[in-house]
Automatic annotation (TrEMBL):
<dbReference type="GO" id="GO:0016887">
    <property type="term" value="F:ATP hydrolysis activity"/>
</dbReference>
<feature type="domain" description="UvrD-like helicase ATP-binding">
    <location>
        <begin position="16"/>
        <end position="297"/>
    </location>
</feature>
<protein>
    <recommendedName>
        <fullName>DNA 3'-5' helicase</fullName>
        <ecNumber>5.6.2.4</ecNumber>
    </recommendedName>
</protein>
<dbReference type="GO" id="GO:0000725">
    <property type="term" value="P:recombinational repair"/>
</dbReference>
<dbReference type="Pfam" id="PF00580">
    <property type="entry name" value="UvrD-helicase"/>
</dbReference>
<dbReference type="InterPro" id="IPR027417">
    <property type="entry name" value="P-loop_NTPase"/>
</dbReference>
<dbReference type="GO" id="GO:0005829">
    <property type="term" value="C:cytosol"/>
</dbReference>
<dbReference type="Pfam" id="PF00570">
    <property type="entry name" value="HRDC"/>
</dbReference>
<keyword id="KW-0413">Isomerase</keyword>
<dbReference type="Pfam" id="PF13361">
    <property type="entry name" value="UvrD_C"/>
</dbReference>
<dbReference type="InterPro" id="IPR013986">
    <property type="entry name" value="DExx_box_DNA_helicase_dom_sf"/>
</dbReference>
<dbReference type="GO" id="GO:0003677">
    <property type="term" value="F:DNA binding"/>
</dbReference>
<dbReference type="GO" id="GO:0033202">
    <property type="term" value="C:DNA helicase complex"/>
</dbReference>
<dbReference type="InterPro" id="IPR002121">
    <property type="entry name" value="HRDC_dom"/>
</dbReference>
<dbReference type="InterPro" id="IPR044876">
    <property type="entry name" value="HRDC_dom_sf"/>
</dbReference>
<feature type="domain" description="UvrD-like helicase C-terminal">
    <location>
        <begin position="298"/>
        <end position="559"/>
    </location>
</feature>
<dbReference type="GO" id="GO:0043138">
    <property type="term" value="F:3'-5' DNA helicase activity"/>
</dbReference>
Amino acid sequence: MIPRVAVHSAAEQVLTGLDPEQRTAVTAPAGPVCVLAGAGTGKTRAVTSRIAYRALTGQISSRHVLAVTFTARAAAEMRARLTALGVAGVQARTFHAAALRQMRYFAPRLLHGRELPELLDSKVRLVTLAAARVGLRTDRAAARDLSGEIEWAKSSLVEPGEYVVAAAKAQRDTPHEPAKVADVFAAYETVKRASGVIDFEDLLRAAVWGIEEHPDVAEQVRAQYRHFVVDEYQDVNPLQQRLLQAWLGGRDDLTVVGDASQTIYSFTGATSAHLVDFPRHHRGAVVVRLVRDYRSTPQVVGLANAVIAQARGTEARLRLELVGQRPPGPEPELRIFTDEPAEATAVAARCRQLIAAGTPAREIAVLFRTNAQSEAYEKALTEAGVPYVVQGAERFFERVEVRQAMVALRAATRSIPGETPLRAAVVEALTAVGWAPDAPPAGGAARERWEALAALVQLAEEYAATPPVLPIGEGAVVERPTTLADFTDELHRRAAQQHVPTVDGVTLASLHSAKGLEWDAVFLVGLAEGTLPTGYAKTAEQVEEERRLLYVGITRARQWLWLSYASARSPGGRNRRPSRFLPQLDGSGGGERAAAGPGRRPERRRNQVVSCRICGATLLAGGDRKLGRCPTCPSDVDEELLERLRDWRQRVAGAQRVPAYVVFTDATLTALAERRPGRPEELIAIAGIGPRKLGLYGDSVLALVGGATVDAICPKESLENPS
């Protein structure tokens, strides 16, 4: 037996280093506890410490705890942390893993001696068969989208006969006419039963049925599990919530952890409603807000706060304003490029610089809205000699639809006349794999396939813009039209380059697959209207989820953050607007112009995100940006210097016969008296002071800041009697 003194000491050790809010969560009494945990606020530490503290103080037995997470990786991390805290025996599992373990144990009792049926890894094959039964021909992408609709319905506790009404109520973007989807759903259930298999939703439903309909099973499960913890509670769907309620059986020793601002999976059936309504459903619940961000610099935190502060809707009711705890770091950068290839080239160049300066490649990520955007960055990183890995998806040229398209393009070189313009030839060739240049189809997988093939058409347009040349003697050359054979050879060359395996490299990932991860340096690219938010976000709720995607992306960065978008998709293309979610920036940042790559127009002027120099919040209002601080943060203005600056401004304005504000506004004078610049570069960093005013007044202002009197700089006599 462990001595009581040792147990007490171990429990106190668990509390060491916790901030006040984390400590409140850890030491809350038995009963319902809701931990609203912002990004980077140490939620995993808080919940594992709560389990360990309660176990070490004798409040609970670790073997009676079930901690539920959404990924096997998160469950493994939780078990490792609990072991390090001296607590073993806690069951930390995903919903499906926990249900599978229970059903395998109870199957002989529930199924009259039979084992649990085989579990389907994927619905696609059976959905394809079901679609054929109802007269619907589908390719793999269409079958994946139908599978997704069936998963949404089953996770939302919707039966085939209820699908049409439920889909309309949820404003689902269905891959086919809703009644047809319902027919496929019903046929899928029939085919599945005939095959003697179950899917993952059946597994959860069976676990619910086993508990709700069999008192002996319920008694045994509830005797085993008496204390529950649910991580990422904003991602729970109705079926998972039903299983959680079955496990609880009316008891209330439940701790949930979540962040409504990171609700980004509603298309799968996940809903933050359970998190938002937790205090209403659990009277007397302890609600703790974790807002101290230990992951990101105050500059990154300030930008994240500024983006999510504009959120509307249900999730915004639980919006958290994070407070950065790390030392200050570099300001986030906003870059604007002429086109997407220029954007990708610049990102690759900066990745190479970061790696050369000592940042490990594995600590750098390039995040985008859709997987189809990865190709440009795979190409640019390859050409820059920067290794990369693709997170949560295949590399562009390894995707099934792209491989099929390349075969079709090679075959088309023998049937399409050589003089056919390249874009038209590529479009014609892609019709062989079912692609058409009109609006993309409904359904996420089908749309993603369409966009991947559309990316090939865009590559053709870019390739045709730089036609090959032929020598014609005496050093002269002539351009010749780019053929489909040329383009096909170029695609195979790129594929060969990008298929080189890498072990440690820059991460390329969609914003969805980046959830739960973090890096030292993060590039958020393609932040243009139509991409983020996607043009498919039609409702207010869908637009708000797109905003939360950007918030998730921003909060992945620890130290260094780059945000960028291209004014056009391809060189010379139609102009696009920046994402509506970006802060409204003025044009006062840096003024830097950088080459966009060989043969490209230069990058547009860089804008910097300006943060409060006191609290780190992102500054959006022009006056606040000039001051360099929030209006509510304390001012450290030098009143005597401010008075001299006003006197000097009055004399200069009088001599020039202009209003005083033409020289400098009151806000600019206050910023000068607060920030007291000592060098020209510090002076021009103040919003409202550009090169012209630096040339006109820079020396005088710097002299005044240095202690000079107004009379020494501009004597009254010289102003009254100009020569």
